[in-house]
């Protein structure tokens, strides 16, 4: 499931990412792709050459929550796609830590203390990497 592609299509063609997720057989998702895009003003290009945008992160969070509700989140790989204008490794790792932090938050929903500690660790790692 390419979340950035779903967002780009929503922007360019006017359909809802949430409606798209509703129509999917979520149990068939084998991995999640996150990527950036180029904003061309009137349209977006799914270029995989930038950091994941905030709207894509929001859709990813929603998808992860849906998958967790259906029991389909365990061991699901998440790929940060960055095909050109590749940044330093620490930038890619920061994106990966953020993606994992969202999964940790959803998986640990019963334990607020563990959510805070896991998120603090991953956020600290991301901040150190970007410093």
Account of the protein in words:
It is a single chain. The chain has 131 residues and is mainly alpha-helical. Helices cover 55% and strands 9% of the residues. The chain contains 5 helices and 4 strands, in the order H-H-E-E-E-H-E-H-H. The N and C termini lie far apart (31 Å). The relative contact order is 0.15.
Properties at a glance:
single chain; 4 strands; two-stranded parallel ribbon; mainly alpha; 55% helix; 131 residues
Beta content comes to 5-15%
User: What is the number of E strands?
Assistant: 4
- Write the H/E string, N to C: HHEEEHEHH
Approximate helicity band: 40-55%
Number of H/I helices: 5
Which runs of at least 5 residues are low in confidence (pLDDT < 50)? 110-116
Kindly report the spatial arrangement of strands forming the biggest sheet.
Answer: 1-4
Structural class based on helices, strands and sheet pairing: mainly alpha
How is this structure best summarized?
By secondary structure, the protein is mainly alpha-helical. It contains five helices and four strands.
Please render the helix and strand layout as text.
Elements: H1 3-13, H2 17-23, E1 32-35, E2 38-39, E3 44-45, H3 54-69, E4 78-81, H4 89-107, H5 112-130
Parallel strand pairs: 1-4
Antiparallel strand pairs: 2-3
Helix pairs in contact: 3-4, 4-5
């Amino acid at each position: 499931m390419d979340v950035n592609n779903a967002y780009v299509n929503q922007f360019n063609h006017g359909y809802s990412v949430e409606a798209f997720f509703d129509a999917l057989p979520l149990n068939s998702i084998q991995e999640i792709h996150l990527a950036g895009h180029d904003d061309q003003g009137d349209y977006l290009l799914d270029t995989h050459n930038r950091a994941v945008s905030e709207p894509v992160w929001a859709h990813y969070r929603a998808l992860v929550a849906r998958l967790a509700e259906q029991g389909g989140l365990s061991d699901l790989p998440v790929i940060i796609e960055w095909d050109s204008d590749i940044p330093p490794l620490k930038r890619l790792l920061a994106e990966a830590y953020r993606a994992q932090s969202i999964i940790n938050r959803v998986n640990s929903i019963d334990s607020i203390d563990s959510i805070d500690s896991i998120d603090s660790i991953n956020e600290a790692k991301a901040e150190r990497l970007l410093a």
